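Lab meeting, item 3. Inverse folding demo.
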C-alpha cells in the first residue's frame, strides 16, 4: 500500500487545525443532548465527517478517527439506556450485571473523553494522535493512495458465471 505523505505541523493551515479539533469537540457539544439518546452523538459525528471530509486529509483523518471511536461508545451507552428503560417499564430490579455495565460504560466514556481531549489539543497544534485501532483505520482511509486509471487493468471479457 502506498500512502500520501503526512503533513508536518507547519504545513497544516489554521483552518484545517480548527476543523480537525472540531471533530473531537463537537462530541462534547452534543453530549448534553446525547445523554438520554446516545445515538445523537454518532449522528453528529457522521454529519461532521461528511461536511468536512473534503477539507483535506488532515481534517478527514481526525473526523474519521472521532467517528470510528464514537461507534463502540454509542453502542455501549445505547445498550445501557435500553436496558435501563426495559427495567423501569417492567418494574424489574437492576441486577449486578446491569451495574457492572454501568461501571464499564463509565470507564469507557472517561477514557473516550480523555483521548478526545488529547487528540483535539494535538489536532489544534497540527499533530496526530492515534487512538488504539481506530487511528490506524482512519489513517489508512484518509492517506491511502488509490490506484489511478492508468495503473488499473480493466478486464472487459468476463466468464459467464
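The presenter then showed the designed sequence:
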Amino acid at each position: 500500500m502506498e500512502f500520501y505523505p503526512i503533513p508536518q505541523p507547519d504545513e497544516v493551515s489554521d483552518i484545517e487545525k480548527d476543523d480537525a479539533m472540531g471533530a473531537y469537540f463537537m462530541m462534547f457539544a452534543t453530549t448534553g443532548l446525547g445523554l438520554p439518546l446516545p445515538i445523537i452523538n454518532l449522528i453528529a459525528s457522521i454529519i461532521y465527517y461528511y461536511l468536512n471530509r473534503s477539507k483535506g486529509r488532515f481534517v478527514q483523518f481526525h473526523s474519521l478517527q472521532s467517528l470510528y471511536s464514537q461507534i463502540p461508545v454509542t453502542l455501549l451507552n445505547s445498550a445501557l439506556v435500553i436496558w435501563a428503560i426495559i427495567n423501569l417499564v417492567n418494574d424489574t430490579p437492576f441486577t449486578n450485571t446491569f451495574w457492572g455495565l454501568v461501571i464499564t460504560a463509565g470507564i469507557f466514556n472517561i477514557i473516550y473523553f480523555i483521548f478526545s481531549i488529547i487528540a483535539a489539543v494535538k489536532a489544534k497544534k497540527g499533530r496526530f494522535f492515534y487512538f488504539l485501532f481506530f487511528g490506524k483505520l482512519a489513517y489508512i482511509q484518509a492517506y491511502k493512495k488509490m490506484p489511478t486509471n492508468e495503473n488499473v487493468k480493466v478486464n472487459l471479457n468476463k466468464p459467464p458465471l
